[in-house]
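Exercise 4. Each item below gives a protein and its sequence. For each, produce the structure-token representation.

Item: FH2 domain-containing protein (Salix udensis).
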Amino acid sequence: MGKINQKNKTKTVEEREEDYRRMGLDLVSGLSTELYNVKKTATIDLDVLASSVSNLSDGIDKLQHLANKDLSTDRKSINFVHRMKTFLNYAARNLKELREDEDRVLLHVREITEYFHGNVSKDEANPLRIFVIVRDFLGMLDHVCKELRSLKVPSIPNPLAPFR
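Answer:
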């Protein structure tokens, strides 16, 4: 803060106000960059994600059936079946962790949504809606920042501005 004051002593009030305005705009417009992952999350279709996890689970079940029933009787495929079972155990553990992570993340999203919007029902159509709202807000914020940057600050004081 000391350096800002030292530099500002040689500037006029209007120049200092313009500097502060520019610094404020830079700070506010930086929110959009910092919240980039929120924008990406807003594009996620939760139903598609859930069906992908379900499809993975179905595929693992089919492979387990194949390895345990159909291929286990064939002597030639014993080595393959052993390796496939090792892989399937690994995949099943990862799928279980994925489902636990999904439940944990959705719980956190519900908590965030309840914090900002009040009580949320468990049957919420799109629990990720909060990210869409934030993304839209950031879009409006970016638009306003661009408009403010393109405006020139009038040299005549605004009569509607607060008294100094």
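Check: The mean pLDDT is 83.
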